[in-house]
Amino acid sequence: MNQIDPDRPLRPVTDEGELKRAFSCFPSGVVAVCRSGDGADDEPIGMSASAFTTVSLDPPLVSVCVRNGSATWPTLKGGTVGVSVFAAHQGDICRRLAGPPEERFTGVRPISDESGAVYIPGATAHLECTVFAEIPAGDHIVVLLAIAALRCDPDVEPLVFHASSFRALEARRAQS
């Protein structure tokens, strides 16, 4: 099994590429954050995010990190948003939601509800959320989202992002 050589010295963080490589060592779940549009055509607005984590049970909070300068986030944050935790088979949809805005929902029949939240069908979890707080953090904003309602199926395998690619989880038995 490969591992880091403990005799190799630590280096200062001066190379952004090396920092991204180190960050890619940590697997993360991938989500869609979406809501109904405000225009006459009512097209949904959404984006994918790979910096997602659970935060708190009381109050129920999750977080996503959004790049400063995102053109999508300012249009999303005004109302209730739907967070869809992508399932293992949804890598193509995830990539699409990270692409050009006019193509993000091509081939997707999103689920909308009366709150204005929009969800990706087939996901492992749907969370109805509102913005709890936004915290500036370097070149990103940490967005805390308060969960108002949810539905989930833990038996659906999630999409995992690791080392700049989508991966599958492997269940392992405890060693006796």
Structure described in brief:
The protein is mainly beta.
SSE layout:
Blueprint: H1 16-23, E1 28-29, E2 31-35, E3 45-49, E4 52-57, E5 60-67, H2 73-76, E6 81-85, H3 91-97, E7 111-112, E8 118-119, E9 125-137, E10 140-152, E11 160-162, E12 165-167
Antiparallel strand pairs: 1-11, 2-3, 2-6, 4-5, 5-10, 6-9, 7-8, 9-10, 11-12
GO molecular function: FMN binding; riboflavin reductase (NADPH) activity
Pfam families: Flavin_Reduct
Keywords: Oxidoreductase
List the helices and strands in order: HEEEEEHEHEEEEEE
How many domains comprise the coordinates? 1
How many strands, what sense, and barrel or not for the largest sheet? 7 strands, antiparallel
What is the general shape?
Answer: globular
The proportion of residues forming helix, as a percent range, comes to 10-25%
Question: Which regions are unreliable across 5 or more consecutive residues at pLDDT < 50?
Answer: none
| Architecture per CATH nomenclature, i.e. the level-2 architecture | Roll
Give the count of helical stretches.
3
What would CATH call the class?
Mainly Beta
Structural class: mainly beta
Report the mean per-residue pLDDT as an integer.
Answer: 90
The CATH topology label is: Pnp Oxidase, Chain A
DSSP summary, beta strand count: 12
CATH superfamily membership: Electron Transport, Fmn-binding Protein, Chain A
How much of the polypeptide forms β-strand, as a percent range?
Answer: 35-45%
Gyration radius (Cα, Å) is 18 Å
Strand order of the largest sheet: 3-2-6-9-10-5-4
Distance between the termini: 21 Å
